[in-house]
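Slide 14.
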Amino acid sequence: MTFASAPGENRLVVIILRGAMDGLDVLQPYGDPMLAKLRSTISVGPGQGATDLDGFYALHSDLAMLMPLWQAGQLAFAQAVSTPYRDKRSHFDGQDVLEAGTGNDVPNFQRTGGWLNRLLQVMPNAVSETAYSVGIDEMRILSGQARSKSWAPEADLTLSAQGQLLLEQIYHDDPLFRDAAQDAGELGGQEMLDLDAKGPTREAQGLARFAADRLNGETRSRPFLWPVGIAMPDSPR
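Slide 15: predicted structure.
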């Protein structure tokens, strides 16, 4: 797919946090006196390093690099929003509702496919490179009939030319495995060999570089899954 046939120049990035993020610490309503009364050791407001936004809200100090976007009118926040899910208060069921894009009118066991995949099905000229999922787990948001690709920082599949040819011959008559093997061969060998960082920082840098490369190219949609138990380096808890 070339830029001439690409479905627009807009990019959509969806970050799904399977762990936890404290929204009242990321965007601190310090203008409400109850915040200082109830959360004095967590949310501190602009007087202790957070960046004031509008006289009522302040941005966590570790996210100060986002201020140019806020000042340019390219960044907005939405607080106290939720899906209609209230059934068993299951974190996992609630996550499925969010990714499926359905309401309570659809039973949980019938929630198949994701809203982003449904979007791809009606997007002109969409191909597998139009959308990527980034993470080690399967993401319901991209499940469905439209093809997409996936990648994880831990991916490491390096095949010789002979091995790649053998794999193609084995799966030649099976479109499902053939396409999956081709995608794995293309993406699995993209290691992070030139990154000096270690641990979660190295993983985050590799993820950011991969995402930037694709978003500057053909990719138009990309959901990220940051799994439970790993926090972004230097991010608010």
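Speaker note: The mean pLDDT is 75.
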